[in-house]
Here is the input.
Amino acid sequence: MVAIGKAFAALVYLVVVALFGSGAVAHASEARSCECATPSIDRYQQWLASGEGTTVPPTGSLLVRERHGYAAKVDFLNAEWHVVVLWLGNKFEAQADLSRSAGFWLTYSATDDLYVQLRPASHWSGGDKWLTLVPSTGGRLVRKFFRFAPDKWTWLPELGEPSHSFASALSEARGLVFVGKTPNRLDFRGLRVDRYRPPCL
Here is the structure.
């Protein structure tokens, strides 16, 4: 019986490899342990209210317990610019080379339109950054793909024209910064960046 059991297990393994490739078992194991020891969403631990604009919470972490995981929740109040920050490497000093990445999947809900900026390490401060629209979902939770294609990213005259190229922002990406000028209720549930996996701290 033991020999038959081992033979069956070996056969199952070969079928899995044939269908999904040799990494299938590793990916399944990785998926079960993908979160960090401290609160995170897809291993991103630093979702922060910057203190710019009137927000709830006003500063600090946006992460709150949500069922079996965490969500990053923030309310934008008043007609003024609001800023919330995600550090891609989970600490301010870190940066990521996303030049080979196709883009990122974002799972979120928003009651109004906002923007996400790609902020590089060498040009972190200020509003003059490459950005793309994050459309309102009417408060519904959706999953949307944002491409890292130059024609999908622009800048706003009100915030200023970037002095750096979009390609350079990709090569030394420090964070994704969400900005909006209208009242908004935001709920982030997932973020997967193509070809990038953040380190846990």
Q: What stands out?
A: Helices lie at 2-20, 24-32, 166-171. The radius of gyration is 20 Å. DSSP finds three helices and twelve strands in the chain.
